[in-house]
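Check this:
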Amino acid sequence: MQVDGIAYRTIWPAADGRAVEIIDQTKLPHRFETVRLETVDAAAHAIRAMLVRGAPLIGATAAYGLWLALRSDPSDVGLDAAAEKLVATRPTAINLRWAVDAVVQEVRPRDTGARAEAAFAKAGAISDEDVAINRAIGEHGLELFKRAYAEKGGQGPLNVLTHCNAGWLATVDWGTALAPIYMAHDAGIPVHVWVDETRPRNQGAALTSWELGRHGVPHKVIVDNTGGLLMQRGLVDLCITGTDRTSANGDVCNKIGTYLKALAAQDNGVPFYVALPGPTIDWTLDDGTRIPIEERDRREVTHLTGQTDDGRIETVRVTPPDAEAANYGFDVTPARLVTGLITERGVAAASHAGLAGLYPERACTAAE
């Protein structure tokens, strides 16, 4: 995607071949800065501290993190230690373990002298595959958007509500839930996006709004509790979100607050779609309630960071000093509330049969 006329991915090999570079998403939307990752510890920190976030991008970063680790220690001990370190950074997103396992399987049979090069190539392949997957998700989602706009009779914009950030900043490029939005906008469909702020880290207000603004997509940022009112008043034509892990029965685990949007959508007859790449499906789980839910630092709830009118970046407390806080990062939306799952292979019903129909080879392997 474009930033001030320059094409970027969210992660790319450094020109000197000794590191990878990323966009520091903790500085957005106020500053656009890139960071150089030279060690596996730096990659792990980038994932844990959310310099990178979004399930697909976390996976790509972890894959490159293994390359960085193997450059200094290509032994079996070094490989296993690096893999364990990276997997431990974020427990919810399945892409992280998927990408780490893919690189480990690729390099373990090789001589130690060839492991780093093989890991680099595999990380690059994972990144390129993510771009292709997300482009395909966008194309399948575009057909749904065209249909929804046609059903509206071309009266006014197509009003879309999204939660958190599932755009190109959450992937290597294009995004999942935002990919159809970009493609619809580029195809001339008048799209307007309601952007949930997505407390406590405000990925919607900070990242989704920044992305859409750079692409010229009309949008408004709303507080998280506004979606139900908008749906009641007929101001939302469809909802679309991403997901960090989808169980085999079609339950989706996404940023905290997604479940409440799905409930409001069902109550008001608004279609609720979830866009996901195939690697986000956890075929080992038939029940989304078994997905581990990450609990993050309570300071994300008790404090807010923003830019003052004179340009300073400040962090302030919004609760009493002695207030306790709980910070659950995700919730699970039951498959019964999901209108359809938009994947790189097409749109599926949110069910085991629906997913197995698109991914028969993976469903069969899981069953064994």
Summary: The chain has a mean pLDDT of 95. The chain is about 40% helix and 20% strand. The chain has two domains: 2-129, 136-367. Residues 70 and 116 are 5 Å apart (CA to CA).
